[in-house]
Design goal:
Structural class: alpha/beta
CATH class: Alpha Beta
Number of helices: 10
Shape: globular
Number of domains: 1
Strand content: 15-25%
Strand order of the largest sheet: 7-6-5-4-8-1-9-10-2-11
Number of strands: 15
Radius of gyration: 20 Å
CATH topology: Alkaline Phosphatase, subunit A
Helix content: 10-25%
Order of helices and strands: HEHEEHHEEEEHEHHEHEEEHHEEE
Oligomer: single chain
CATH superfamily: Alkaline Phosphatase, subunit A
Distance between the termini: 58 Å
CATH architecture: 3-Layer(aba) Sandwich
Length: 401
């Protein structure tokens, strides 16, 4: 007879054993692989109902872990959600301007202050090796950057988006970095990020006594609409970001490139026998746009309707979660910070706004009701989810923040 993790835990409590407490009591802290897509829609994956194209790697991840049906982003735009993830707090707590996408012009007032405790900095102090591969978008040099906020390694872009072949940002500036130096690597950006992530995991396998945090923040499927076969088209574009282009077929190919990349990274974990000891989380920074599938949700990136903030969310961890689970627990991006710190046995350096999700996802604790808040000044919108009720409001005059 198969004994579920919940039954085993309940039996352990009855026998006087220590109940599940994240991973704080485990002898070895878990590795962490946090994968974030950029502008991926609620129903863009097969495991969320998409039948127009296949996403086998992410569907397999869902089958091997837990799929959340009420996973939310902290915002309907990118910088704000990333700020909430790295701090574990509502993005509004830092300073005005950080709840909007950070503009490309360097500004000493717009960015994540290096002195602020972060998920990577707190894990680093606890002995983790930390790396960010992909999109940063939390402020520009010389004031801000991944290496200033707790990451040991960085390979990726600093702006909100880059051409997949030239690696230039919307202003035309080169924006592919290796640490704090521009990288000269060539290739399709999704594939470059995947290759660097595979290399990162393989190297960390040689350090079995040091856990790692790998933040793999893909730029896909954020526009410009370019597949891995569009190098010639990219070179001919008169405007760097041709938002008027693209097609359903192009978008599908971009998502499938993302899926293949995730599959390669997960296979590397298995090859080096790291998968059993690694918490794997996959989500998106906000809802999709234009070519994304959000049905039956309404709305898209840039607004606080469900399609703009509810996102696909998957988590796998063999130590604590049974395979094939579906959870209706309401969750939000900043919850993962609290969850991962608890799993690593790390006390946060400041009060967090998120909660540890593992007790609910593992079935040890019942689902808990949530009251969550959103505000997006750019569209003059606000929203609250309180239990099963959501309140959405817009206002005519811009509020002061």
């Amino acid at each position: 007879m198969r004994v579920t993790r919940r039954e085993a835990v309940i039996g352990g409590i009855a026998a006087g054993a220590v109940p599940y407490l994240g991973n704080a009591a485990a002898s070895k802290p878990p590795n962490i692989l946090f994968i974030m897509a950029d502008d991926l829609g609620w129903a863009d994956l097969g495991c969320y109902g998409n039948s127009d194209f296949s996403t086998p790697a992410l569907d397999a991840l869902a089958a091997g872990g837990v799929r959340l049906t009420h996973g939310y982003a902290n915002s309907c735009v990118c910088s704000a959600t990333r700020m909430a993830l790295i701090t574990g707090r509502y993005q509004y707590r830092l300073r005005a301007g950080l709840e909007e996408p950070i503009k490309e012009k360097p500004d000493p007032l717009l960015g994540l202050p290096p002195s602020h405790p972060t998920l990577p900095s707190m894990l680093k102090i606890a002995g983790y090796h930390t790396g960010l591969i992909g999109k940063w978008h939390l402020g520009y040099l010389p004031w801000f950057g991944p290496l200033k906020s707790g990451y040991d390694e960085f390979f990726g872009i600093r702006s909100g988006g880059a051409d997949y072949f030239t690696h230039k940002s919307v202003s035309g500036q080169a924006d592919l970095w290796d640490g704090d130096r521009l990288s000269g690597e060539h290739g399709y950006l999704t594939d470059l990020l995947t290759a660097r992530a595979v290399e990162f995991v393989a190297k960390r396998a040689g350090h079995p006594n040091q856990p790692f945090l790998l933040s793999l923040h893909y730029t896909a499927p954020h526009w410009p609409w370019e597949t891995e076969h569009d190098a010639a088209r990219s070179a001919q574009l008169k405007e760097l970001f041709d938002f008027s282009g693209g097609s359903l077929e192009t978008y599908a190919a971009m998502v499938q490139s993302l899926d293949r990349g995730v599959g390669r990274v997960l296979e590397t974990l298995r090859k080096h026998k790291l998968d059993e000891d690694t918490i794997i989380i996959f989500t998106s920074d906000n809802g999709g746009e234009r070519y994304s599938k959000m049905w039956p949700l309404v709305g898209e990136k840039g607004d606080l309707l469900e399609g703009g903030i509810r996102v696909p969310t998957l988590v796998a961890y063999p130590r604590s979660l049974d395979a094939g689970g579906v959870s209706h627990q309401v969750a939000i991006t900043m919850d993962w910070t609290a969850t991962l710190l608890k799993a690593a046995g790390v006390e946060p350096a400041l009060p967090l706004d998120g909660i540890d999700l593992f007790p609910m996802l593992s079935g040890v604790s019942p689902q808990v009701p949530r009251r969550l808040f959103w505000r997006f000044v750019g569209q003059r919108q606000a929203a609250v989810r309180d239990g099963r009720i959501k309140y959405f409001a817009g206002w005519e005059e811009r509020i002061s923040v």
